[in-house]
Amino acid sequence: MPIRIVPDDTNINFFAAARITFGASVVAVIASIILFFTMGLNYGIDFTGGTSIRTEAEQPVDIGAYRDALSGLDLGDVTISEVFDPGFDDDQHVAQVRIQAQEGHESVSNETMGAVEAALKGVDPTLEFMAVDSVGGKVSGELIRTAVLAVVGAMAAILVYIWLRFEWQFSIGAVAALVHDVALTIGIFSLFQIKFDLAIIAALLTIVGYSINDTVVVFDRARENLRKFKTRPLIEVLNISANETLSRTVMTSGTTLVALIALLVLGGDVIRGFVFAITWGIVVGTYSSIYVAKNIVLMLGVKRDWDKPSTPTGGQFADVDA
Amino acid sequence: MLHIPLWRRILIWAVCLAGLLLALPNAFYERVERSNDAEAAIARGLTTDELEAEAALWPSFLPDGLVNLGLDLRGGAHLLAEVQVEEVYAARMEALWPELRDTLAAERETVGFVTREEAPEGELRIRISEAAGAERALELARGLATPVTTLTGAGASDLQISMNGTLLTVQLSEAEKAASDDRTVRQALEIVRRRIDEVGTREPTIIRQGQDRILVQVPGVGSAQEVKDIIGTTAQLTFQPVLTRTTDANAVAPAGAEVLPSLEEEGVYYVLESAPVVTGEELVDAQPSFDQNGLPAVSFRFNPAGARAFGTYTAENVGALFAIVLDDEVISAPQIRQAIPGGSGIIMGSFTVEESTNLAVLLRAGALPAELTFLEERTIGPELGQDSIDAGKLAAIVGGVAVIAVMALSYGLFGWFANIALGINMILLFGALSMLGGTLTLPGIAGIVLTMGMAVDANVLVYERIREEMRTAKGPARAIELGYERALSAIIDANITTLITAGILFFLGSGPVRGFAITLGLGILTSVFTALFVTRVLVVMWYDRRRPKTLRI
Asked: CA–CA separation, B363 vs B297, rounded Å?
């Protein structure tokens, strides 16, 4: 007999601790917003402009020596950090050097790059530039605009889609869950000052996509059960729906997390921030579809006018599962 | 009850087979790549035994589309340049000034003395001393304007001229500015393409982006700095007298002459006088046109100094050949049919319309029309790219094995059906990527790993539903049928919303992020297909054979 991760016929009362869970979510979102405004995000050069160089050398990284070598070049703000990854060889020492955008240039000039390379090679002749990214102020401004537009646009599109397919209360609930997930992800990036770049925006959108996926499955069941149990109170129906879909929620989150953890550990440091964002987002996304989205629906209430099944309010496909 | 029509089964397996065939080349990546390169060379007209052998590395009856590797995996340079289109306005005004001055000076009695005044860049301000001559001056200036040559700006004048008292102000009209910007960016694009092609790297991407930007992606170069150096060099265009034409590559040039190859004709060389008659710096414009017989030709115009030199030379050398040389290659070597005074002329030859258009572009493309400012540049070393591929592969394999284990443990036999579907899903995903010429990037690999995790979702939804339906006990067949039926709406809703976000990522993202959107979006489509059709066929085939009384799911 196959193993059941979640037993059949669970009967967990997800609303028992509604005050606590929902309260915790509200507090976490507010804390994230406060973090965002006080600590800010560690924006990558995609959004601030500047140059980021990934160096690799055979000798261990000496941040002080790197800094001294570059201090004479009058580059303004320079940050140097060492990069670690379990996949590196013993003689593979990687550092990330970041230089602010230079006056009078959009992307970095060849002269500046030449000077930086010469200075760092002076410290360690085995040092090589593995990757260089340089973004001018003009493009970074546009990237920020596009990124915000993408996240807001995705949420708006989902709001409309859920509204068309379900009731507006579900739509608000779903988007509230999304805002919760995105806010919490931004919060943790702010708290740990993890580099926030263009890829993280893609991760945020993935979280939006995944979280909505989860929420929709629970909602779909709630819609079905609302028709099945016409007289039961909304809270019970929502609870039954959550219990019925619990096994699926745990399974899918489980398989996705298993795949992502493999990527997080083995996928290399280049995409670690990106994978971390998605992994975190899936954890909070699963939580939010159980504890946030449904609470909102419960608060808003659903008009339960299911007397005429011939005119489904659920939208054009609603007959399929009726 | 559990019946799938034969035609549908055939269709489902046909799709899987097609996916497998399309994905197959990627399993032999290097081999297919070499074969494709050789085939491309043969198509260009080069044929050697070696190339034939290379081409035969991959059978021609099999699909040979490969998933392109993005720069972040292959290594290379990515640059975004902005063309400073405004520079051209100023240059145009500078060129107009002598002409306008001479025109006005010719009617000194009416307009009086002409003086040029300080003006913002791209504007020409001229003061005349006779207020009474204002109207005539305006008329004369307007006479220099020509209609704009674009589809949209048809009928509009290229100059915007106004008279305020005795001050004549001239600048390019909005229509002409738009047309000029377009021309400038096209020219710049053409030059950048020529520069980079000369270096001969594989498959550079050089495309226009937005109004005035050019995106350059060159795989395999060491750094963006190198690419900037290449683009930065100015093209050298010259008009040189031809001494002889030869097919001998080792022809010895006499003193003061040089041997240069022809660009168009393979194996043809020209012996030219080294000192050019005129250079491209003196060329003002070149446009595709037609000669008096209605055959495609290219008309060009020199500045006054160039015109004088060119006029004198052609007058003295009617019947001789002169070569148009670009970067030490002879573009064409037409015969001088008559003296060409006035600085404009026409190059005739056996051109097609396309060739004459290209030649005009090349001529104009001699030097960058305006400066390029680099807004963004990224270099990824090939080693880092390879590390990323290795790490991504390992993570994908480990992640895949873990997902398979979880599914098998949770659903037993049905889990294996889902696992087979997952494998087919990956094959279809690669097949679709190859067919669409999609680019695989590092975030794209993450998208694939994520797809593996999420792909089983649709199956999980169905299986959980079957479990539930089993409890209301209407027999296994009915439970399976209801499971698929009732899980459908959740599957559709859940996947459409994810597809929406993938779509938004695709349209707003660039480069690596777009690669992620592609794999995520295609992954959703293939996973829904495999969950709804492939596993279903597998389940039904199993059921038909075994007719179980209960389901162990």
From this structure: 13
Token output for B413: 């036999």
d(CA A280, CA A273): 10
pLDDT of residue B348: 66
**CB B373, CB B82: distance < 8 Å:** yes
Rounded to whole angstroms, the Cα distance separating A261 from A263 reads 5
pLDDT tens-digit map of A132-150: 999 988 888 888 888 888 8
**Is 70 exceeded by the pLDDT of residue B358?**
no
pLDDT digits (tens, 9 = 90+) for B13-40: 999 999 999 999 988 888 888 888 888 8
Per-domain residue ranges for chain A? 18-41+139-300, 50-135
- What strand order describes the sheet that includes B344-347? B283-290, B296-302, B344-347
B449, B466, B489, B510, best to mutate vs chain A, most A CBs in 10 Å: B489
What are φ and ψ of residue A130, in 5° steps?
-85, -35
Contacts of B219 (CB under 8 A, 6+ apart): B71, B74, B75, B76, B201, B202, B203, B204
- Tell me the shortest Cα–Cα distance from B222 to chain A, in angstroms: 9
For chain B, the first-to-last Cα distance in angstroms comes to 20
CATH of segment(s) A18-41+139-300: 1.20.1640.10
The model carries a pTM of 0.76
* Segment A198-218, tens digit of pLDDT: 888 888 888 888 888 888 888
Residue A102: phi, psi to the nearest 5? Answer: -90, 140
pLDDT digits (tens, 9 = 90+) for B125-148: 888 888 888 888 888 888 888 777
Judged on CB neighbours under 10 Å (0-12, 13-18, 19+), B391 is buried
The model's confidence at residue A103, banded by pLDDT at 50, 70 and 90, is: confident
H/E stretch holding B154 reads none
Chain B nearest-CA distance from A248, in A, is 6
Cβ-based contacts of A268 with chain B (< 8 Å): 387-388, 391-392
CB-based contact B267:B243 (threshold 8 Å): no
CB distance B377–A134 less than 8 Å?
Answer: yes
* Residue B327 token pair: 């970067």
First to last CA, chain A: 32
Per-residue confidence at B236, pLDDT binned at 50, 70, 90? low
Output the pLDDT for position B365.
58
Average per-residue pLDDT for chain B: 83
A107 to B391: CB separation less than 8 angstroms, yes or no:
no
Print the SS3 string covering B480-493: HHHHHHHHHHHHHH
Chain A hits for B416, CB-CB cut-off 8 Å, are none
Which residues in chain A are closer than 8 Å to B459, comparing Cβ atoms?
none
Tens digit of pLDDT for each residue in B209-226?
Answer: 888 899 998 888 878 888
**B115's tokens:** 């003086």
How open is the CA angle B393-B398-B404, to the nearest 5 degrees?
125
Do A18-41+139-300 and A50-135 come out as alike in CATH topology?
no
Per-residue pLDDT, averaged over A180-186, amounts to 93
Report the top-level CATH class of A50-135: alpha beta
Whether the CB-CB separation of B128 and B168 falls below 8 Å is answered with yes
- For the record, the structure tokens of B295 come out as 């055959």
List of long-range contacts for A117-120, beta carbons under 8 Å, 24+ apart? A119/A69, A119/A70, A119/A72, A119/A73, A120/A55, A120/A66, A120/A69, A120/A70
This model of the complex carries an ipTM of 0.83
Say which residues have a Cβ less than 8 Å from residue A22's Cβ, sequence separation at least 6. Answer: A291, A292, A295
The pLDDT tens digits of the residues spanning A234-282 come to 888 888 888 888 888 888 888 889 889 998 998 888 888 889 999 999 8
